[in-house]
């Protein structure tokens, strides 16, 4: 994906900022299409099938890639991809609610201290111990949880 790691186009930071409009999922999909075409060409594998795979955001990209470029990929595997996470389709906190519920379900004893620190990271360290989200949260120093 452009703008991550060493794949920063345009060289200088100033040039990058001038061209930040290219930092989007449509450009990423077009880049992936170009890469697939190029690799298949240099490997003389034009007739080889391609299945795109991804998890979370890259899973969304995989499913969108299959929709936009069906002639380049015969399938897509999207793991943990929040495909329906589109404005006005679900509640804004649905992701955090799901993650919290999943974490709680897989542990025998939900560790509120870990949950508290997770909440702090989500909300920039602004969550108080008396949070209405976690009314039974103890403000005592955290102890490691026993799963």
UniProtKB/TrEMBL annotation:
Tagged with keyword Transferase: no
Protein name: Lysosomal pro-X carboxypeptidase-like protein
Gene3D superfamilies documented for this protein: alpha/beta hydrolase
Keyword Protease in annotation: yes
Keywords: Carboxypeptidase, Glycoprotein, Hydrolase, Protease, Signal
InterPro entries (alphabetical): AB_hydrolase_fold (IPR029058), Peptidase_S28 (IPR008758)
Gene Ontology terms, MF aspect: carboxypeptidase activity; dipeptidyl-peptidase activity; serine-type exopeptidase activity
Family as reported in the entry's similarity comment: Belongs to the peptidase S28 family.
Pfam families (alphabetical): Peptidase_S28
GO biological process per UniProt: proteolysis
